[in-house]
Amino acid sequence: MRIFAGCVPTNQRIYRCEDVGDFRCIYGPINGIFLLEKGHYIDNVRFAWWNPATKECRLIPRIHFEVQQYFEDNNRRLGIGIDLVNQDYKVIWHRTFWDDMTSDVYPKVYAAVYSTNNDSWKFLEPDYSHLCQICISQNCTYMNGVYYWITTSQRFCNKDNVYFIRTFDFATELFGEMTGPPIPGEHWASLMLRGGSLAAMSCDDVTQAMTANYGIWVRNRENNWIKVYTVNPPIPSHFPIGIWEYDKFIYELTQTCRLLFYDQTVKEVTSLGFHFYDLSCGSNWAISYKESLVPIKNEKSTEKDNAEYFLTKY
Q1: pLDDT tens digits for 29-81?
Q2: How far, CA to CA in Å, does 39 sit from each of 47, 244, 310?
Q3: Can you tell me the distance from the alpha carbon of 285 to that of 28, in angstroms, rounded to the nearest whole number?
Q4: How far apart are CA 34 and CA 17, in angstroms?
């Protein structure tokens, strides 16, 4: 298998852990550091920093939002980044809840930010509507001290442009918003970093096998978005899960969970060689990762500060 001329990629397992029952997601990386998340209940979510290169793991204290027993998760998104003023790795977590008593979204946005320097959480009061639906990004959309999400809201819904960009500044710990790409409201959309710059992907129907057309949008000035090209991967039923550089995309086959690499420039599809036939359920994440020796250890670390303990016991 060859993806680049003169380069033969290999599949290498960097970590494996047995008996993991409630792993939920992996975020990042930021300077080679990931955020691990586990737990599937409102008050049972746990986090940890993890550096695969150094094998360091740092447990993050639990946080509990004060919610009613009849609340359920509605929309939950995280972002990780660096407070460049204080050189502090932070996590921003914002959530909305479904109220079973009223059969509607509870009219409040819950949010908290974690500081690694202080090893503590702080509750925030976001000033945006609970009707905002923050979408999952294709990769870690952090740049220069700010995290970005593409977002929809009933306040912005109109025929021409439903999407806008929600931001969080890790230094000021303030949310903001900016103009998004002019993607029609009925289309699927996802934000991503393309070659280190903010970009977006849109599609009118991601369920159409071999006929899905993905528009790629880039921001060439502060509030000006342009559509640079359309991707039409010749592969069966799939879902986009990542981008590599400027024009290479990773798709997961929905029936077999196989991962395919599609080069838009040369119009070639390559299997990445990962097969997950033996899994009854699970998730795949396509991550562009460069090893780093950045330390994340707690000064008062214990034997519990390791990935295996976090994944199986914490």
Answers
A1: 999 999 999 987 777 899 999 999 999 999 999 999 988 889 998 888 999 99
A2: 9, 29, 11
A3: 11
A4: 16
